[in-house]
Amino acid sequence: MVTFWFPFARPFAATLSGAPFTLVRMTSDDTARPLPSRAIETYSALSDEQTDAVLELLAEAARNDGQQAVSEQGRLQLRGGEREGVSHLLLTVADELVGYAQLEDTDPVEAPAAELVVHPAHRGHGHGRALGSALLAASGKRLRVWAHGGHAAARHLSQVLGLTLFRELRQMRRSLADLNLPDPVLPEGVTVRTFVPGQDDTAWLAVNAAAFAHHPEQGSLTQRDLDDRKAEPWFDPAGFFLAERAGELIGFHWTKVHAEEGLGEVYVLGVRPGAQGGGLGKALTTVGLRHLAAQGLPTAMLYVDADNKAAVSVYERLGFVTYETDLMYRTET
């Protein structure tokens, strides 16, 4: 466990030493009152109690911000013990958890990626900057940071930390109430069936890795990652469609239902290299959207990189429009 200590408020000409310290506020009666100091502790795995506290913090931030500050992958990595390359940073003030960050260093090429959040009631006190500084130190100043929703405060923090915009991920949505798509046309010899847990895991992981070899998050999913998702309450193999030719998996469309929000999601859609260009992706998209509409869901959503012009164009032709944007910032080194 590594511990970083930061002052709650920075006095003029103050410096950090190797040990924690307490700042002092002078009152009108010249009585010295200590200000609580903040501590950032880094863990390779969290206890159940710590995990519950982080999830409560994330839920409160989501209620305030209207969206999650930490991705689904990040939330899944809170549980289940130690995961290679994943670190959890807990920021406390007077033993109260007020901030959280997660650092993932698993990509062999790209800089470590991070997400962070500060409790809404404790913002404006430099906690975000403290977490960002700790992430920079832990990553050797090679860092990528997600800002979900691209809010102004996140943009300001990225500037303070010396980060520049690197990636734009769009969330697109369309109504399912007026879904009027033509029947899907599958390439010759291709059939579609649903996923069978346990039976199709290995083949799906291989095709997913091939289809998203250029995509560091999606293409690196492991059996453990797949098992995490299969254990989630939303998992439904009836909405996980596989395309086969001569018994070989060549594409898939995994849909997801966000029951509380009344949203259906084009969760992951991929076609194996060599099987692309024949209309399979569009056909699988149609199959999945029809399935979601049949569940009575009013709206469908998906995520796509803004620089993937071909995919954005396909989704726009299917009636999707940009709803919000997530931004990734990174160091220049």
Please describe the biggest sheet, giving its number of strands, its sense, and whether it closes into a barrel. Answer: 13 strands, mixed
The first-to-last residue Cα distance is 27 Å
Q: Which class do the helix and strand fractions yield?
A: alpha+beta
Q: Judging from the principal axes of the Cα atoms, what is the shape?
A: globular
Low-confidence stretches: 1-32
Strand order of the largest sheet: 1-4-5-6-7-8-15-9-14-13-12-11-10
| Radius of gyration of CA atoms, rounded to a whole number | 23 Å
Helix content: 25-40%
Helices, by number, come to 9
SSE sequence, one letter per element: EEEEHHEEEHEHEEHHHEEEHEHE
How much of the residues is beta strand, in percent? 25-35%
Mean pLDDT: 87
**Based on DSSP secondary structure assignment, what is the total number of beta strands?**
15
Describe the overall structure:
With 333 residues, this protein is of the alpha+beta class. The chain has helices at residues 48-65, 72-76, 127-138, 152-160, 201-211, 216-219, 223-230, 280-294, 309-317; strands at 2-6, 23-26, 32-35, 38-43, 86-93, 96-104, 113-118, 144-147, 164-175, 190-194, 240-245, 248-258, 263-271, 299-305, 321-330. Helix 3 links the parallel strand 7 and strand 8. It is globular. Residues 1-32 have low confidence and may be disordered.
